[in-house]
Structures are given as structure tokens and as C-alpha cells.
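Risk register update: the risk that structure generation would not scale has been downgraded. Supporting records follow, first protein first.
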Amino acid sequence: MDASILILKPKQPFIDWVNEQLSQDNLPIKTLETYDDDECGPTTYLIPDFEDLPKAKRWLKKHYLTLFEEVLSGWTIDENEWPEDLSYKTFSQWFEFEFNLMVFDLRDLR
């Protein structure tokens, strides 16, 4: 399998938005630490294979909105509750990106 990996790690502005959603339902507030420690943690995506980081970053700039909407919809499907500004700049302020261009498929090992 030829693939790379993208890991999205939340930053404080995303946590602040999540807490707005949780407060509406009287649920416990998250911090960066508790977000990482529970089932929410960073999200890993299998993405196309790239030979270098600049190409992977260009792919992300082209497809960031799909990822942004996927993460937001995990907290609320009501798009009226999403932030108004879904730009790449906002996405970059809300998430840290980590790429891994070397991925090995070991699922067949037993």
C-alpha cells in the first residue's frame, strides 16, 4: 500500500469551540490535556502517497475543508453552530499538522 499519514492535533481555539458545544449540553469542559487523554485525541488520516513534504502540504491546502468539516461534524452536525470562518487560516489556527510520508502496512502480521 502506498500512502502517507496526516495527524491533526487540536490547538486551544478548537478546544474553546468544543467547550462552547459541550457547555450547551452541560457536559464536562475539555482542556488540551484531557482532549488528548480521552477518546478524542489527535486524528490520523491515511492520505495519498507523497514523495516530499511540500507536495503533502499542497494536498492539505487543497483538501483542508473536507477535513475541517469532518472534525466539526463530529461535535455537531448543525452547521449553524460551526464557526463562520472556515478558511485555511482558521484551520491552521485550530490544528497542528503532522505528516508521516513513510507508512508500513503490518496488518497481516500475526
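Supporting record for the second protein:
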Amino acid sequence: MEIPEILSKVRSYGCDLVEVTGGEPLVQKNVHGLLRALCDAGLEVLLETGGSIGIETVDPRVKRIVDFKCPGSGMEQHNLWSNVEFLTARDEVKFVVGSREDFEWAVEKIHEMKLLTRCSVLLSPVFGVLQPARLAEWLLQERLPVRMQLQMHKHIWEPEARGV
């Protein structure tokens, strides 16, 4: 789809919030133009990125959600920690936690990178792997001032559904 078609489709939903996500949107050729066009259209725009590509060139009107990968994902080595310096109070960092080891690693990174002084921090349980109640217990025990989030799309649609 071309950008005007995307804008038309977004407007057809009658909402003022749009999130660009799925895989790694920053590898898409025209993503910066799309983000700019969505902002220019007066929409609130969120970008969810895997944290392996620099966010410094993302339009400053976009709320950036950086999903740093925990060790249990097997993708930890792709985290681009220099992204932290570009985070603002309107951005978010997310960790999807699959085990106690992932949780402890995320807590360590939250403190090491001083994330709570930069932006909101969210932790989510890996769907079908870690029970949400277990993660909630750990967060309460740790007294960590973060938000817990569920991968809502996996509760609404089939977990493997694409394009939703």
C-alpha cells in the first residue's frame, strides 16, 4: 500500500491513535515517510520497535516503544543499547519476560540504564509461557514501579494471527 492509501484506511476507522508495529517496522523503506504523514494528519502515532535499529531519526512527534529483547528470546545480542540516550519521557521501554531469569535480567537493565528516570517501563509475560499472575507476583515482591502489560492481540485473536 502507498502512504495515501494507508492514511485513507486509518481515517476509515474513525480513531485518532495509530500504532506502527509488526516485525521490525524500522527496516521498512518508507516507514519514516509514513510516520511523518500520520503525524501531519493530526494522529497520535506510536511506533513499536524491537530495539535493534537506531531510533534517533524517528519523527519526534512519534511515541517510541522500544522492546528490548530478554535473554530467553535468543535475540538479546541484537539490542542496541545506545537507543536509551534518545528516549524521552513520552517514550516507553518494554521487556517481554519468559522466565525468572529474564525477569531478573530486565530488572538489572532497568536499574543499570536508569530507565525509570527516562521513560515509562512495561513488562509483559511471554504468552503461553509465563503466567501473568507469576509476573505480577514478582513485580509486587520487587516493588518495581513499572506497568505490567499483556500481549492483548494474542488474547483477542489467535496468537499466530498476522495483520490484525
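Residues 14 and 149 are 25 Å apart (CA to CA). On this basis the risk owner (M.S.) recommends closing the item.
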